[in-house]
Amino acid sequence: MLQITPEERLVLQLLAQGTPMNGIAAQLGVTSRDVERQLIKLFEQLGASGRTEAIAVASRRGLLIPDQVS
N or C end of the chain, less CB within 10 A? Predict the structure, then answer.
């Protein structure tokens, strides 16, 4: 079973909203490099090869809040 943290869920939500990596980093109070590492981990967990696929998989698995996705 997929286990993601609330912060990882937020990263996915921001990614789905089209927020750039530096914007995600600013919202989380971390560096862009930290966000990049977190995205790589999320891609692996979701079995996704990139952002678009990760968003699609997360959406199918109910990991995104639909009315907050642009």
Answer: N
CATH of residue 24:
1.10.10.10
Q: How far apart are CA 40 and CA 64, in angstroms?
A: 18
With contact defined as beta carbons under 8 Å apart, do 15 and 54 qualify? yes
Please write the tens of the pLDDT for every residue from 21-35.
999 999 999 999 999
Q: How many CA atoms lie within 13 A of 46 on its CB side?
A: 26
pLDDT digits over 4-13, tens only?
A: 889 999 999 9
Whether 68 is covered by a domain: the verdict is no
